[in-house]
Automatic annotation (TrEMBL):
This is Immunoglobulin superfamily member 3. It comes from Tetraodon nigroviridis (Spotted green pufferfish). It is a single-pass type I membrane protein. One of its GO terms (cellular component) is membrane. Residues 14-137, 149-269, 297-407, 426-537 form the Ig-like domain. It is found in: Membrane. Residues 1-25 form the signal peptide. Keywords: Disulfide bond, Immunoglobulin domain, Membrane, Repeat, Signal, Transmembrane, Transmembrane helix. Pfam families: Ig_3, V-set. SUPFAM superfamilies: Immunoglobulin. Transmembrane segments: none annotated. InterPro entries: Ig-like_dom, Ig-like_dom_sf, Ig-like_fold, Ig_sub, Ig_V-set, IgSF_V-set/TM_domain.
């Protein structure tokens, strides 16, 4: 254990006397205000000034101490005028320059004790020998050190994400570029004085031991968080943090590790006390054991591959294509995936995983016949339900990575997969459709019935009736339809007549459908078609 010293300094104020009606300033010696509290082994300084003396004369300074154990006994320490001024207990320390006086001016000096010892506690006195022809004023001023015990210690214990073992201090850690690192610094103290702590994390280059360490992040004694150099921007971006997680724990977090983070990491804490003059003094500084951090650079290259269970399909079947990105540390990188069919865009999925569809696929996705999604960090899915023959062709996956350079600019790198040729065969069916009428010539007002007979069916049928004029000058119109569930609907131009019962459609049997027109009019003249569709599950 090491110990504190406190110096109680009681500065003398100047006084004045008046002689023969003339004001004469008295000689006054002052020292800095006290008390001072310092730790054993620390470097302590106490200044001493003299005023009111005859100008032009260089002043000398003599320092003594009155120990707490013998408050009436003066022990001489050092003098600027007498080389052998020190008593034996201090002579060796004075001769070795452990104790010395620094002269600031002809009337000001500072006592330095570079390595404070436990027996230095007591009342220090600064004395200035008289240089005038008479004595007037004060020639000395005291200050008193006090020594409470030092109670500060530091240890470090890293807690690393992605590692399951319990890390210990003073170790070597291996991480991959882009990973996250966490280290916790434990700082404990039981000081009875009112003190403040500052805790910081530093990085030292293993190649250049003479180079000064780089400050990563520090919590100052005034509770201000700051970062040094190139790490300031990373702290602003949230990639560098220092969190106080308990009364004694200070956790460093570095997200998105970079090769420049490699080196020796350690925590440094200082305990500060405020002197009576308002200045702060670091009583104790300690460092934790160093942790060797090694960063394995990420291979920035990547490759892509498109896979599917098969490449030949029948109309109506679903198609699933998967685009796999093969690269290091994919979750921490920014990839966009584009699906392309025969040079036409199908969909684009950016880093946010929100798909942007090509114009020809918006309605298809809205109907639930298409799915585009990000299955995992490196796997993207394109699924087409109910393939049509027009879906046959070449599919490719194009991947673009956006990377931020150290200068803050962005660069894009793109790669495309090999073509995946998909073939879609139309459904084969042996059905035949025959259309017949109950009469060949119709007079206005007559009723006519058209019968649509479908043969060789294996599944449910849907039937649509169309009409067009003889000359083909008017567009084809839908008269009525029956879906595979037997639901009847009418075309827009025939809805009103159907509501009056003048148009009727019936599913007579599973393969027989009739269209009946009552109260025919000249506008009903033309060609009628029956289109049958067979549905297979």
């Amino acid at each position: 254990f090491s110990f504190f010293h406190s110096f109680y300094l009681f500065p003398f104020l100047p006084s004045f006397s008046f002689v023969a009606g003339v004001a004469v300033a008295q000689r006054v010696v002052t020292v800095q205000g006290g008390p001072l509290i310092r730790t054993e082994g620390s470097h302590v300084t106490i200044w001493c000034n003299v005023t009111g003396y005859k100008q032009g004369t260089v002043q000398d300074f003599e320092w003594s101490i009155y120990l707490s154990s013998a408050p009436d006994r003066e022990i001489r320490i050092i003098s600027t005028a007498q080389p052998n001024y020190a008593y034996a207990v201090y002579a060796q320390r004075v001769n070795s320059k452990e104790i010395y006086v620094e002269r600031l001016s002809r009337d000001s000096a500072v006592l330095h004790i570079t390595k404070l010892q436990a027996n230095d506690q007591g009342l220090f006195e600064c004395y200035t020998p008289n240089t005038d022809d008479r004595y007037l004023g004060s020639y000395s001023a005291p200050c008193e050190p006090h020594r409470p015990p030092e109670t500060m210690s530091i240890s470090v214990s890293p807690c690393l994400r992605l590692f399951r073992h319990a890390p210990t201090s003073d170790q070597t850690l291996s991480k991959v570029e882009g990973d996250t690192l966490q280290l916790t610094c434990e700082v404990s103290r039981t000081t009875i004085q009112h003190t403040h702590l500052s805790v910081g994390w530093y990085l030292r280059s293993p190649e250049d031991a003479a180079a000064p360490p780089q400050e990563l992040v520090t919590l100052s004694r005034d509770f201000v968080l700051r970062s040094g150099g190139t790490y300031r921007q990373r702290m602003a971006a949230g990639d560098l943090r220092l969190d106080k997680t308990s009364a004694t724990a200070y956790r460093l977090t570095i997200h998105k590790l970079q090769p420049i983070d490699q080196g020796l990491l350690y925590c440094q804490a200082a305990e500060w006390i405020q002197d009576t003059d308002g200045t702060w003094f670091a009583m104790t500084r300690k460092q934790s054991d160093k942790t060797q951090l090694r960063i394995q650079p990420t291979d920035r290259d990547f490759s892509i591959q498109v896979s599917t269970d098969r490449r030949s399909f029948t109309a109506g079947e679903p198609l699933e294509l998967r685009c796999t990105i093969e690269a290091q540390n994919v979750p921490e990188r920014f990839f966009s995936v584009s699906w392309v069919f025969s040079s036409s865009p199908v969909a684009v999925v950016g880093p946010s995983a929100v798909p942007i569809l090509g114009p020809e696929y918006v309605a298809r996705e809205a109907a639930g016949h298409m799915t585009v999604r990000k299955e995992s960090a490196n796997v993207h899915l394109l699924k087409l339900q109910h393939l049509h023959p027009k879906d046959a062709g070449k599919y490719i996956c194009r991947v673009t990575e956006r990377e931020k350079t150290p200068t803050g600019d962005f660069i894009d790198r793109s790669k495309r997969s090999r073509n995946v040729q998909i073939s879609v065969q139309p459904l084969k069916s042996n059905i035949t459709v025959a259309l017949s009428s109950n009469i060949s010539e119709v007079v206005e007002g007559d009723a006519i019935q058209l019968t649509c007979l479908v043969s060789f069916t294996a599944g449910p049928l849907s039937v649509v009736w169309h009409w067009t004029d003889k000359q083909g000058k008017r567009p084809i119109q839908e008269v009525a339809s029956v879906d595979r569930d037997g639901t009847v609907s009418h075309g827009p131009a025939y809805g009103e007549r159907a509501s009056f019962g003048e148009i009727r459609v019936e599913k007579v049997q599973s393969d027989t459908f009739t269209l009946s027109l009552y109260n025919t009019v000249p506008g009903d003249e033309g060609q009628y078609h029956c289109t049958a569709t067979e549905w297979l599950q």
